[in-house]
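Hi V.,

You were right to ask for the full record rather than a summary. Here it is.
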Amino acid sequence: MDFTFTEEQQAAVEAAQAVFSGIAPDSVPSPALLPGAVADDFDRALWHRLADADLLGLPITPEHGGAGLDPLALCLVLRESAKVLARVPLLESGAAALTLQKYAADGLRTEVLPQVATGDLVVTAAAAGRTGHEPAERAVEARQDGTDWILDGLQTAVPWGGAADRILLPAHTADGHAVLALVPRTHPGVTLADQVSTNGERLAEVGLDGVRLDDREVITDPAAWELLRHLLTVGTCALALGLGEQVLTMTSDYTSKREQFGHPVATFQAVAVQAADRFIDLRAMEATLWQAAWRLTTDAAGPLPPAGDVAVAKIWASEGVRRVVQTAQHLHGGFGADTDYPLHRYHAWAKQLELSLGPAAAHEEALGDLLAAHPLG
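Predicted structure:
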């Protein structure tokens, strides 16, 4: 079997590396030193450079100004972005674009996707629900009124919700049917309350009170919400992988230079074993990530639905990235907590990614349900 990436996917990685090469992880104040958000907005300058490099339009078809690539390409770019802690809604925008590309009405695609590709329209996605511990679609009720839809409810912890132009969020009808609504941030009936993530980034609690939308702004195919949820989860795994790889590189550099008893600490067996264990974690995270992304890309059949591969990838990403940053803190000694050294920032981002869209335990439970419903062998 050929596990290499296509030329187009590799070109996307090279373009991403060129854009991210000048980004410093400590370009904003440390989240450990501020009671609120590290900045009022995401990195707009970086966002425009991503647009100029045609990286915002990766999942959008050429018909709408994009490159027409797949979730694998998006994950490859997300992996690079996490290495520098890029403060942009690349995951949410890419996942929303892929979902709209597949399920939105022609008119909505024509209106929205070309602007997403150029970076002129910022779309984020809500997936945490009211509390973060319940199905997100249950947090908002959607009912039809003629050709319009009316939305009532609340979505919490919406990434970049206060800065995005539109929010793609799930809702449910009276009969439990899941729908997706593309809601303008400034639409009448929409209220925003500031929230702050573990890594110091701005989130938003989005309230909807009698929000009226045109029929074309609501996607009624239940598969659309399932795809968006899976894309966000797999993209989070890609971020965790890129972050973990960068942290292990930082640890390797530090332990190869830090000396005790006249020798680099990297030559000590206890240090080498811990680093090797974390390398194994990263390779497991990588293998499960690409398996899940491939299932979403190809719709290939398997013993379990794609949700099973997504759950396995998130289990490894959640547990693996936590172990990587914990080992890095241990091997760095006091430098791990030094706010002038970037490792503590990666630790905060890792914790945010670990818990985003459900910790390992939640996905283990989901995987168990899938195994019970689809017995193997």
